[in-house]
Every structure is written in C-alpha cells, then in structure tokens.
C-alpha cells in the first residue's frame, strides 16, 4: 500500500518538476506561432534592412529600435559594470562581515524596487537634469542608460559577489603572504580568478537591460528614428512592442511578435552563455 | 605607484562606489515618500478611482493587487516547491536535473514584456480567459517560479541528510521524511523565496497590462479585469494625469516592497541562526 | 540459540568499488555481536546492508544473500519500510530531530499507524525506561530534544528506535562522541536490551567490544577475518591479523 502511494507521489512530483520545461516550451510555441509567419513570408530582410518603421505604410524596419536597444544597453553596461564590480569587491574584501550583512539586503531592496518607479524617477528627476546640462529633449539614450545602469546593479553585484566569495581562501592568503596589499591581491589574483563569474553577471545584467520595458518607455522619449547622439531620444524594441501591441492588428501585430521572437532568441542565447560560463567554473 | 598608496586610494574609491549605490536606493525611497506620504490618507486608500485617476483614491488597485499577488502565489508555490523537491530529493545531478535547471534559468531571464505577450496569446485569447485577474495571475505565477525554485532548492539542500536517515531508519518512506521533516525544516527558507517573489508580482507592469487589463473598477472575482497598483501608477505617471496621485500610489508600492523585504530578511536571519 | 540473521557469500560494491568481500556470518537471537576493525574496513556498510539503508544512495550492488528469520531481504518483493521498522539503528552521532523529546519519540510509531494518545504515552514511558532515560527527562518531555546532553541525546535516539518495536538493533559506533560516564550508561542499557532484542555493535573501541559483546567479528578491508566468542578473540585469536589489531599493533 505504502509503496504504491509512494510511487504515485514520485510520479506527480516528476510531472510538477517538468512544468518549467513545459512552460518554456509553451512560451516558445506561442510566441513563434504568432510571429513566425511574418518572418517566413518576408524573410528577415524586411525587418533588418530598413530604417523605416511605419506600420500604416507597411514598413517594418526595426533598425532604429535595434540601435536604440543596443546603445542604451551598452550605455547601461558602461555605468553598471564598473560600479557593480566595485561594489562587489568592496563587499567581498573591504567590508566587515557586519557591514556586509547590512549592505546585502539593501542591494536586494534595490532589486525589489519596481521598474516603473525607476522609470518615474528617471523621467521626473533625471531627465530635467540631463536637459539642462547636456541639452536635447532630456528623455534620451543617456537618461535611459543611467536608469538601466542602476537597475542592473543588483544582478551584477550579487553574481560577482558570489564569484568572489566562492574563491578558495588560500588564493588570498597566498598572495598576502608574499607581502601584497589587499588591492594588489584583488587585481592580481582575485579578479582574474573570478573573472568568469563576473562575466556571467555582466551577461545576465545585459539580458536584463535589453529586456527592460516600462522604465525605458518612461525615459527614452520613444521617437522612432535613428538617434543622432546620446542626448537624442529613441525607442527600444521592447518599448515598441509594449506601445503598439494594444492597437496592432494583422501584419503589424505579426511584425511585433516577430520582434519578440528576435528578443526572445537573443536573451535565451545570453542566458545559455551565462549558464555555460557559471557551470564551467563550478567544475 | 606605491602599493600602500594605491591600496588607500582603491579602498576609498570602492567605498565611494558602495556609498553611491546605497545613496541611490535611499534617494529613491525618500524622494517618493517625501512627495507621496502627504497624499496617503484613509480617503486615498479607500476611495474608488475617479476621472481615470485624477481624483478619488486607489482602492480598486489595492484590491486587484491583492487578488493578483495571492492567486499567483497560490499557483506558483506548489509548482516551485514541488520542482525543488524533485531536484533535491528524487534525483541526483544528471541530465534530467540539468534540463529542469535550464528551464528554470531561462524562465528567470525572459523579459516581462515577452511574458505579457505570451500571457496575452495563451491565457487571454487561446484559453479564452480574457483580460482577467486569472490570466494576470497565471502569467505572474510563471514569472515567480524561478525564484521559488531556487530559494526552495537551497533551503531543502541545507536540511542535514541525517534527518532524512532517521525517518528511513524508523521504517518511514521517502515522502514521509520529506513531508514531516525536510519541508517543515526548510519552510523559513522556502517562505523567504515566496515572499520575495510576491515582491516581483507587486512590481510587475509590462506583463500585466496585456493580461489583467486596465479596468479601474474593483474586481469582484478572479475573472474580472483589474489594474494593479504598479499598472495604475504607470498610467498616472506616463499620461501625466495627476502627479500627486502618482506619488501617492508609488508610496504605497514602495512601502509594500520595504515591508516584504523586511519580512523576508527577518525570516532568513532566523533561519540562518538556526542552522549555523 | 536461534539464528536471527544469516549472511551468505555477501559481496557489496559501491560505485563499482568492492566494499565487502564474501562475508559469511550468522547472528543469533538475544546476543550482542561486536564488529571491530580499522576505519574503512566496511563495518558501517555492513550495518547498512542489513537494514537496507544502503539503498538510499543508488550506486551500489549487493551479491549473495542476507536472511532475516529465514527470509531473504534482498528479494524483489520485500517491503523495505517494514524491514527497516524491524531493525533499529543508532548512528555514531546522536541525531535528535529538532522537535521536543516527546515528539521525537512518537515520530516513529505515527509513521506507521494512528495510535491513541494513551497508548503512545505508555509506549513513551516504556521505551524511555528501557533506554534508562526516563528518570532524567520525565518532567520535561516537551522541551526541545536539542537541549539534552550528548549522552542523553544518544539514549533518546535509542528510545526512539525502540518506539517502533524492532527485533534487531544496530549500533554504529554509538559512543564515539560520548564521555566515559555516558558511554557506560549506554553500555549498561545494551545489556538490558539484549534480553529482548538482537544487537549488533560496530565499534572502533576494542575495549568496548570486549566489555559488552558475546561474540566478536573482526573485519579488515572488507573481509571477515575471524568471528568467535569474544573471550576467545581477545585471549587467543586464530588469526595473527586479529591479534595485531587487538593488541594495537596497527589500525
């Protein structure tokens, strides 16, 4: 009796465990189902070889949005990576345990703040500052980069910190025993040893930046054109989907889903890359 | 450069980076609360949304948010904990766990706008649930899964193997050990994950616009449409309907997030204390 | 004396590494059999073969037969849970569950069936008395088991094993973490228990084996070197290896 019951429980838990995989499959299926017809009918050329997005004329060039997404992600990394890694080093090597126990939950809190709140602060506080110092409309690539750079900090900090804390103590002791200062140990031994973990954090942060939607809608200005400078307004791929999905029909809707496929595939690749890097380090 | 000098400079720079990061956090919280707290009255919390949010309060949004958070947690927790139990107790590290882990990691990385599109085509249209709390909650539940799986897995792994052996040695089955000892002992850790993922549900916007809809009425069941506080705040802020109302809503959001993080921090600390 | 356990040509492999080689050994009812031998000689694995705890990590293989009351426990239709219920085990380090003393004790019986509170209470008292712990804890049954001393915890674990009414009790170096006073208490308890149960004691401490057991077996690198009356083993062992070990010349 007991054995029988045990088997049933094991089977049900196995089914539950595969729910994540099943859901991932469903997501892929439904996004592709909606967007793939557009790609199959037009090839990728119609999306990629045009700088003109105007659904009313049947032009679906995503180049302006692609440039918008990439430049903002790049900008976010320029701010977020050095700052995040610096914080991780500080937490791992230069702060006392008590201080770390206070600071870590604050970093988690930073991750918990809703993206709309980040977007709102960017819009209401940061954009006017940028406008008065750099000119332009204020809602710009620069503003979005700063907001996103801050938003990806928790990801970069926590993964880099884990990478640093996982290093064997002997690395540090070996270096210090040779008379190196803490900072020499960090740059000479710890950072090189933890670099793959840090890289994984950067990649995941990048995925987060590319995927972010609501915050960038609030701070980029959303104009559909190839931006001319970093204080110019722009629109990202994600923002484009969110803004137009509400009223898009027919081919327009398919084109938006096709954009989603591109985003989806790109982010899955980034994730696989990050996972590979993390796993290799564990072995 | 002199190593001693570079050490001092580096220490100062790193400390400043940390200080800067923390100041951003504190700045955001204070900025929102400073502008929003004066708006927070009983009236604001208990009145319906009037004139698209220019007047009245946010009562319907609070109800919608509660509906969404609770329903999604109810759906996601058994799935997430079950997955964690399978990974940790029923199989060793092998291809199967790799596949499940992969699924979970991918779900964690997918941006919320894609979840929104998926929820829209799958729950709202394909399954015919329409814009409803249910569609929104199911979408949120999927988004929560990775967090719940990861934290539950850690919590379950930290329960000593000897506790499981005791159950076996007394003639108990694997499931009895899991049910009676492993899960109760891992509960604080599991709860931490569940609570943190409630935070994610609370903050979510992009996925909900396409799944739960934007109705400003108070939902009466999980089949009604409803806008969560985050969605309402987004509409207020972006469409410039009413800045004070936006600040007020944001304050409620921020206070809820602070509360959630505080609770999970307390739980986690208790948990760590018990096991170290 | 009646044979309780019969082990025939037993080979055990863990991850393709041989742990026990061709063991042939009988255990009789109401005796204490000690198994001595240096670390990694396969003593603990032997215990885990008998109560099939080895099954928990799946990378193992058992060849040969283990009979308990004439029944082969590695036959496919054996109910492992029922088997383990008949065979209690005490681990090297006491493992009180993080529950109250009382809840620790009733945990075992409730795994198998619903029992009335009165019967449970009776059983608790009886088992605590058998484990000579009753006098020390009878007024604080609802305190956490983690607050007991190491020796008390070990006797609590013993009482917990008794709660499911086993026939055989396995001791896996039960006193390795205990001070001499607690050790002697556990040993005295074992003497009492042997009237009703069959006991197998794995120990690193040859003196302990000499003190408590009726017969002693000497294991070395997975092989059973010799098994005989304890007195015989410690006065004139047949094997030179046994002699070397008990006189402390190696191990």
From TrEMBL, chain A:
Example GO BP: phosphate ion transport
Annotated membrane topology: Multi-pass membrane protein
Transmembrane segments: 12-32, 62-89, 109-130, 142-167, 188-210, 255-274
Presence of keyword Transmembrane helix: yes
Primary location group: membrane
InterPro entries per record: MetI-like (IPR000515), MetI-like_sf (IPR035906), Phosphate_PstC (IPR011864), Phosphate_Transport_Permease (IPR051124)
GO CC terms: plasma membrane
UniProt-recorded Gene Ontology molecular function terms: phosphate transmembrane transporter activity
Cell location: Cell membrane
Limits of the ABC transmembrane type-1 domain: 66-274
Function: Part of the binding-protein-dependent transport system for phosphate; probably responsible for the translocation of the substrate across the membrane.
Family: Belongs to the binding-protein-dependent transport system permease family. CysTW subfamily.
Name used for this protein in its record: Phosphate transport system permease protein
Lineage of producing organism: Bacteria, Candidatus Gottesmaniibacteriota
TrEMBL record, chain B:
Membrane topology listed for this record: Multi-pass membrane protein
Cited Gene3D superfamilies: MetI-like (1.10.3720.10)
GO biological process: phosphate ion transmembrane transport
Domain ABC transmembrane type-1: 62-264
Pfam family, one: BPD_transp_1
Keyword Transmembrane belongs to the record: yes
Cellular component, GO annotation: plasma membrane
Alphabetical UniProt keywords: Cell membrane, Membrane, Transmembrane, Transmembrane helix, Transport
InterPro entries: MetI-like, MetI-like_sf, Phosphate_PstA
Similarity field: Belongs to the binding-protein-dependent transport system permease family. CysTW subfamily.
NCBIfam families, A to Z: 3a0107s02c
Name listed for the protein in its UniProt record: Phosphate transport system permease protein PstA
TrEMBL record, chain C:
Coiled-coil regions listed: none
Keywords, in A-Z order: ATP-binding, Nucleotide-binding, Transport
Start and end residues of each ABC transporter domain: 5-246
Name the UniProt record assigns to this protein: Phosphate ABC transporter ATP-binding protein
Pfam families for the chain: ABC_tran (PF00005)
A cellular-component GO term for this protein: membrane
Gene: pstB
Keyword Chaperone included in the entry's annotation: no
């Amino acid at each position: 009796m007991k054995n029988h019951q045990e088997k049933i429980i094991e089977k049900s838990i196995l089914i539950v465990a595969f729910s994540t995989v099943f859901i991932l499959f469903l997501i892929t299926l439904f996004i592709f189902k909606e967007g793939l017809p557009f790609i199959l009918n037009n090839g990728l050329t119609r999306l990629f070889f045009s700088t003109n997005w105007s659904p009313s004329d049947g032009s679906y060039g995503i180049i302006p949005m692609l440039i918008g997404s990439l430049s903002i992600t790049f900008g976010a990394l320029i701010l977020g990576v050095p700052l995040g890694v610096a914080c991780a080093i500080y937490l791992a090597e230069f702060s006392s345990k008590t201080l770390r126990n206070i600071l870590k939950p604050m970093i988690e809190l930073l991750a918990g703040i809703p993206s709309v709140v980040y977007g709102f602060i960017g819009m209401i506080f940061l954009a006017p500052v940028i406008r008065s110092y750099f000119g332009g409309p204020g809602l710009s690539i620069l503003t979005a980069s700063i907001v996103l750079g801050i938003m990806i900090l928790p990801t970069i900090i926590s993964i880099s910190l884990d990478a640093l804390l996982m290093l064997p103590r002997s690395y540090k002791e070996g270096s210090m025993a040779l008379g190196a200062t803490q900072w020499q140990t960090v740059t000479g031994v710890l950072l090189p040893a933890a670099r793959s973990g840090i890289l994984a954090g950067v990649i995941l942060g990048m995925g987060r930046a590319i995927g972010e939607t609501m915050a960038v809608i609030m701070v980029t200005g959303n104009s559909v054109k190839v931006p001319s400078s970093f204080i110019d307004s722009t629109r990202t791929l994600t923002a484009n989907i969110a803004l137009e999905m509400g009223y898009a029909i027919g081919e327009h809707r398919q084109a938006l889903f096709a954009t989603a496929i591109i985003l989806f595939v790109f982010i899955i690749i980034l994730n696989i890359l990050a996972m590979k890097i993390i796993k290799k380090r564990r072995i | 450069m002199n190593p001693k000098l570079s050490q001092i400079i580096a220490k100062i720079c790193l400390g400043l980076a940390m200080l800067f990061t923390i100041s951003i956090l504190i700045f955001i919280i204070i900025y929102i609360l400073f502008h929003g707290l004066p708006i927070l009255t009983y009236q604001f919390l208990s009145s319906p949304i009037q004139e698209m949010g220019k007047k009245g309060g946010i009562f319907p949004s609070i109800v919608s948010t509660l509906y969404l958070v609770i329903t999604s947690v109810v759906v996601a927790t058994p799935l997430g904990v079950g997955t964690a139990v399978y990974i940790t107790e029923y199989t060793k590290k092998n291809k199967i766990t790799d596949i499940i882990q992969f699924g979970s990691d991918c779900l964690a990385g997918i941006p919320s706008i894609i979840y929104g599109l998926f929820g829209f085509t799958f729950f709202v249209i394909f399954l015919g649930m329409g814009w409803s709390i249910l569609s929104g909650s199911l979408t949120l539940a999927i988004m929560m899964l990775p967090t719940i799986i990861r934290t539950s897995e850690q919590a379950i792994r930290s329960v000593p193997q000897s506790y499981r052996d005791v159950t076996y040695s007394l003639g108990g089955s694997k499931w009895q050990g899991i049910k009676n000892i492993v899960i109760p002992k891992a509960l604080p850790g599991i709860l931490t994950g569940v609570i943190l993922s409630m935070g994610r549900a609370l903050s979510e916007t992009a996925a909900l616009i396409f799944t739960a809809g934007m109705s400003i009425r108070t939902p009466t069941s999980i089949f009604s449409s409803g806008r969560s506080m985050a969605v309402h705040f987004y509409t207020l802020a972006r469409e410039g309907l009413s800045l004070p109302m936006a600040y007020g809503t944001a304050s409620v959001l921020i206070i809820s997030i602070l509360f959630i993080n505080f609770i999970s921090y307390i739980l986690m600390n208790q948990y760590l204390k018990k096991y170290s | 004396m009646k044979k309780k356990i019969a082990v025939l040509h037993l080979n055990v492999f863990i991850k393709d590494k041989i742990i026990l080689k061709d063991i042939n050994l009988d255990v009789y009812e109401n005796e204490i059999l000690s198994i001595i031998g240096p670390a990694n000689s396969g003593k603990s694995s032997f215990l885990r073969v008998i109560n099939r705890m080895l099954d928990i990590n799946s990378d193992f293989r058992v060849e040969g037969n283990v009979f308990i009351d004439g029944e082969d426990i590695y036959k496919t239709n054996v109910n492992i849970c029922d088997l383990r219920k008949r065979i209690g085990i005490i681990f090297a380090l006491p493992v009180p569950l993080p529950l109250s003393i009382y809840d620790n004790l009733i945990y075992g019986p409730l795994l198998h069936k619903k029992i009335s509170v009165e019967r449970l209470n009776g059983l608790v008292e009886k088992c605590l008395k058998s484990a000579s712990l009753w006098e020390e804890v009878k007024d604080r049954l609802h305190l956490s088991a983690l607050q007991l001393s190491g020796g008390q915890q070990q006797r609590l674990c013993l009482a917990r094993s008794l709660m499911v009414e086993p026939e055989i009790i396995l001791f896996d170096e039960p006193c390795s973490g205990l001070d001499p006073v607690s050790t002697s208490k556990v040993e005295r308890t074992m003497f009492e228990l042997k009237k009703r149960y069959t006991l197998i004691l794995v120990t690193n401490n040859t003196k302990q084996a000499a003190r408590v057991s009726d017969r002693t077996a000497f294991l070395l690198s997975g092989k059973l070197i010799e098994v005989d009356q304890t007195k015989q083993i410690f006065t004139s062992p047949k094997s030179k290896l046994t002699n070397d070990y008990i006189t402390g010349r190696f191990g």
